[in-house]
Amino acid sequence: MFSAFCWQPAFFMTEQKTILNNFYSEDKKQEKPMIDEHAQEQMGILIMDSLYYTLPVIITIWRSGQFYKITGIVNKVDYLMKYIIFESDSNNRINIGDITNVERD
What we know:
Elements: H1 14-27, H2 37-53, E1 57-63, E2 66-78, E3 83-87, E4 92-95, E5 99-104
């Protein structure tokens, strides 16, 4: 009787495994969506509400072709350097240009 492992592809070289892993990660990447002015204004309102009234928000960010969601409260907004400090499990510094969506928690 054959086990299920005998039918698995064999990786003979570590370079081969690295190349295949890079191929699959590149395949999953998504383009950053274009955000119109109205959506930017609405996201700004929700960020400022979180800052002034300590309301939790969910911020979706785009980094290196992947989307990530962070839940927490905005602690600081720096318009000059274009980032916000986001208080969650650990303090996160988020570039304003990486934010794709903001919603209330």
